[in-house]
Automatic annotation (TrEMBL), chain A:
Belongs to the adrenodoxin/putidaredoxin family. This is (2Fe-2S)-binding protein. It holds the Pfam family Fer2. Its cofactor is [2Fe-2S] cluster. Residues 1-21 are annotated as: Disordered. It comes from Arthrobacter sulfonylureivorans.
Length: 106, 435
């Protein structure tokens, strides 16, 4: 099963196994990973599942749609070049994910 | 905290067979889940029982009228937390129990009696019991094929009936009605929406937004009738199944399925039985405490002081939203920890209907001016609401930048001057001003 490696704002790492097809956000929420709020449950409406993706894995990800791009301008911690909304990042078999969570989401 | 009570992390069976818990949360809802999660984050160390009357683990409702209905998400992905999470956090989930009566002492402890005969003893009580779908009161409303959409069983029942349906009527042009109508239309049904009022989503948005949705939905293939007066639901020949909706004047709109979405009624019965003050919901103070001073009532069921900063003293409101369920529960968690935090925040809402993503920031209560921003080319539309020159809310369709700008400005106590905002090319974030 693919593993998501979450690093929080203090640098603590937590590894969570997820199911292929689930999003990084769902994997976090279901297991109570702090740092991802996800009020809207993944419908791209709230921008509270903001993560920073490890730079060298960015090119493995699907391209951002306009809606996600615009929502990222409203995150609680300002976006960076490696910002994504974790509800849009699906896990794939044989592909681990490395993300950092911002200090706050709201 | 009350130090005279012996607390235990494990629920103990008492001599009379009742389960004893530190906190009993009645209602395994969005707010019930958040309350348990927030309490654990704050270090609440007593046992928690999260009790619901449905036979499902606590799940998210918003997708029921959209992705779940359309079959694009599995039921498993609606589950809030894994079983492991609840085990690790010492929260007992109780499914399929309906509480009928509660005996409570002055110190906040008591015992809840379920319809099954089971009893749950508690030291503190939380009511996160939500609301139920308002029932249609016309002849034929009990025919087979007439459905509601409030919980997972409703959605499952609706899905199970869709096979033979060609024509569906949705009664009610609010959020649920229009979301479900859009879903059914996408699934190939002929859909007619019957709205009693003169405009769509009349309770939540202003006239300009209603007009926008009317045009947009008609353009996407929904048959929408405003000011519709329903006389009866008409049965099929010799059967107990619905065949159409009869309107005043004799028109019958054919329907093998009728979905009713005409609002909700707060579940105040337990509050009333406990002798709590009830008025369109269980009345709570700024700390989510009910009139007995010990019970917390949270989310859809609570009638609370308007949390929007700057709202007039004494103004009360009951909010039906995910955002409120979450933020209100956080305040209630503080109260149960003996800390008093005021509930204050910017309410926000969303509704996805076909390709229309509506996001609402703030509350329009008392607005006296609107500014419409329309970008036809990019399919974006926003209405900004002002009260005495100060922005108080915005409805934004496919316009997340506007939504975020208004939500953030409200949170920071800023204004977005109306004159400058009227130009749709202006980026709202750049014109927000302090004070």
């Amino acid at each position: 099963m693919p593993t998501v490696h979450f690093t929080d704002a203090e640098g603590a790492v937590r590894d969570v196994e997820g199911n292929p097809g689930d999003s990084v956000m769902e994997t976090a929420v279901r297991n109570g990973v702090p740092g991802i709020v996800a009020e809207c449950g993944g419908s791209l409406s709230c921008a509270t599942c903001h993560v920073f993706v490890r730079e060298d894995t960015l090119d493995q990800l699907p391209e951002m749609e306009e809606m996600e791009d615009e929502m990222l301008y409203g995150t609680a911690v300002d976006r960076e070049d490696n910002s994504r909304l974790s509800c849009q990042l699906k896990l794939c078999e044989g592909q681990d994910m490395y993300v950092s969570t911002p200090e706050t989401q709201v | 905290m009350d130090t005279t009570t012996t607390t235990t992390a494990v629920p103990a069976e008492t001599a009379d067979g009742a389960v004893r818990t530190g906190l009993l949360i009645i209602g395994a809802s969005q707010s019930g889940v958040q309350l348990a999660v927030s309490l654990r984050a704050l270090g609440f160390d007593e046992h928690i029982t999260l009790l619901g009357e449905e036979d499902h683990r606590p799940y998210q409702r918003p997708a029921l009228s959209k992705e779940f209905l359309q079959g694009t998400v599995e039921s498993e992905s609606l589950i809030f937390r894994s079983n492991q999470y609840w085990e690790d956090h010492n929260v007992a989930l109780v499914k399929g129990e309906r509480i009928e009566r509660i005996d409570k002492e002055a110190d906040g402890s008591g015992v809840a009696h379920a319809a099954s005969g089971a009893e749950f003893r508690f030291r503190r009580l939380a009511l996160t019991v939500g609301a139920r779908a308002r029932r249609l009161q016309v002849p034929g409303a009990d025919l087979a094929g007439v459905v509601y959409l409030r919980n997972a069983d409703d959605a499952l029942a609706l899905k199970a009936q869709l096979g033979g349906v060609q024509d569906a009527v949705v009664i009610g042009g609010g959020f649920i009605g229009l979301e479900a109508a859009s879903s059914l239309h996408k699934m190939g049904k002929n859909v007619t929406v019957l709205e009693y009022g003169p405009r769509l989503i009349g309770r939540a948005v202003g006239e300009e937004t209603s007009e926008y949705f009317l045009t947009a939905h008609r353009g996407r293939g929904l048959d929408i009738r405003l000011n519709a007066r329903i006389q009866e639901l008409v049965p099929a020949d010799g059967g107990g199944r619905v065949a159409g909706v009869g309107l005043e004047g004799g028109t019958v709109v054919p329907a093998q399925l009728v979905l009713v979405g005409i609002g909700v009624v707060p579940n105040t019965e337990l509050g009333e039985q406990l002798g709590l003050e009830v008025d369109n919901g269980i009345v709570v103070d700024r700390h989510a405490l009910a009139s007995d001073g010990t019970t917390v009532a949270v989310g859809d069921v609570a009638n609370m002081p308007n949390p929007l900063p700057g709202s007039p003293e004494g103004e009360r409101i009951r909010l039906e939203s995910v955002n409120n369920a979450i933020e209100h529960a956080k305040v209630a968690a503080y109260s149960l920890m003996g800390r008093r935090e005021d509930y204050a925040g910017i309410p926000w809402f969303w509704s996805n209907q076909a390709d229309l993503k509506l996001q609402i920031a703030g509350l329009t209560l008392g607005y006296d001016q609107t500014v419409v921003r329309r970008d036809e080319e990019r399919g974006k539309f926003s209405v900004l609401y002002y009260r005495g020159g100060q922005i108080i809310a915005a409805d934004c369709v496919n316009a997340p930048l506007d939504f975020m700008a208004v939500k953030n400005a409200l949170a920071k106590g800023q204004n977005i001057p109306a004159e400058a905002a009227a130009d749709p090319a202006v980026v709202l974030k750049t014109i927000a001003t302090d004070g």
